[in-house]
Specification:
alpha/beta, D-Maltodextrin-Binding Protein, domain 2, 2 domains, 6-stranded mixed sheet, 16 strands
């Protein structure tokens, strides 16, 4: 959900028509004999495919583990995984590789970018490969899988933002350890948890990265949408879009919320570290951080729905798996086998339990293994339950650049350089020009 050099994105996407002649040579692997007979040379080679992914740390190790299992059970396919940095670093590398004709066969794409990639003809239509089997996936996670009624992406590491609370801290303050349920309760809890020492704030009640993902959530909770239904104009210039920013700036002015310093992922890392160091009592972050926070916290971590205003509401998030359109037919067939396997029930269950990302198939959610895990630690079920109130992220091709415009103006309000109304009005003014391009 963070930032990318959008000039690179726009420039590269604009090259899509010129990329039609760029292709990747089919790679050949180690010979594999079958059934004791020596097949023809062309049939004796495993198909090699490149898989670029965007998660580091423990989650990246889990990806490598799954790929190893796939390779061990699919002797006719060799998947070569490669970590390419965060979502936006990977996106830039993929687009550059497409232009150069040496793109990967499978990659992760942050869900709001699926439309931009598909519109640029970079992605393969997965409909003929899935042939109706996409019904296995949780419907609430499929909103960012389609572009112009074609299936281009399959849910993989999917998330929603969650409210994480230090339950020990809340109990000590006489608060409900399950956390606040509304914006007003969040304000009250943040005030109760904030502590000053020597005239300085030692503990903030609440912190969140000032990020488009969380702003989208607050707009949804306030009964609004980011874009009009046809995707051709911004819909945040009313109370639905201005109240969330007024809520944030009010908490900051009251001294009960910390806006973590840093840009892009750095701000997220600061918020999580402040939470683990017990310098902040509550934070917004991804369900994909659940396992890491629980493993590293020296207190009881609780996960909850984002607090409601007019209603509950969250955007879904994370990334989907996509197939690149310039791969050879053999590579595409192998790529689909890999995508299908990585997102199937036997793999999405351990993936979810080891990372905190949501399981992506209906069978996984209903499995005895997940039910036992939810019973043992209900935190793991919060994101799945919150899907009832979830909406897909906007994914018109221009949203990548548009969200940067919105965030620039939100930052101005947070820094006191503009009122919430001035910031939103300026974002709409700039954004309308982008959407009309």
């Amino acid at each position: 959900m963070k930032k990318l050099s959008l000039s690179i994105l726009a420039c590269t996407l604009g090259l899509s028509a010129a990329l039609a002649g760029c292709g990747k040579q089919e790679a050949s692997g180690t010979s594999q004999a079958s059934g004791g007979q020596q097949p023809a040379a062309a049939e004796n080679k495993a198909v090699e495919i490149d898989f670029w992914y965007s998660l580091g740390g423990h989650n990246g190790e889990m990806i490598e583990k799954l790929v190893k299992q796939f390779n061990e059970t699919h002797k006719d396919i060799v998947v070569k995984p490669a970590y390419q940095g965060n979502y936006y670093e990977n996106h830039a590398k993929v687009l550059a590789a497409v232009s150069a004709g040496n793109q990967p066969d499978v990659t992760m794409v942050e869900i709001a970018s699926v439309g931009a990639f598909a519109d640029a003809k970079v992605l393969e239509d997965l409909g003929p490969y899935a042939a109706g089997t996409e019904d296995r996936y949780i419907p609430g996670l499929m909103g960012n899988s389609y572009w112009e009624n074609k299936l281009y992406a399959i849910p993989f590491n999917r998330s929603t933002p969650l409210l994480y609370v230090n339950r020990d801290m809340l109990k000590a303050a006489g608060l409900d350890p399950n956390g606040p349920k509304t914006w007003e309760e969040l304000r009250e809890y943040a005030k109760a948890l904030t502590k000053k020492e020597g005239g300085k704030t030692a503990v903030y009640g609440f912190s969140t990265p000032i990020d488009i993902w969380f702003y989208e959530a607050l707009v949804f909770e306030n009964g609004g949408n980011i874009l009009s239904e046809d995707g051709k104009s911004l819909a945040i210039n009313g109370e639905e879009g201005k109240a969330p920013l007024a809520f944030w700036t009010g908490l900051l002015q009251d001294g009960v919320m910390k806006a973590p310093p840093g840009e892009k992922y750095n701000a997220w890392d600061v918020a999580k570290q402040d939470f683990l160091n017990q310098q902040v009592g509550m934070i917004f972050t991804s369900t994909g951080d659940l396992k890491s926070l629980k493993d590293n916290a020296k207190f009881e971590v609780g996960a909850a729905f984002l607090p409601a205003n007019k209603s509950f509401g969250v955007p879904t998030g994370g990334a989907n798996l996509v197939m690149l359109s310039k791969s050879s037919e053999a590579e595409k067939k192998a790529a689909w086998e890999f995508i299908k396997w990585m997102t199937d029930t036997p793999q999405t269950i351990p993936w979810s339990l080891e990372t905190g990302y949501m399981p992506v198939t209906k069978d996984a959610v209903e499995s005895e293994e997940m039910k036992k895990a939810y019973e043992k630690d209900p935190n793991f079920q919060v994101a799945v339950n919150q899907l009832e109130h979830a909406k897909p992220r906007p994914m018109v091709p221009g949203y990548k650049e548009l969200q940067e415009v919105i965030m620039t103006e939100i930052q101005r309000a947070v820094l006191g350089q503009a009122t919430p109304e001035e910031a939103i009005n300026k974002a709409v003014e700039k954004g309308e020009k982008l959407l009309k391009k």
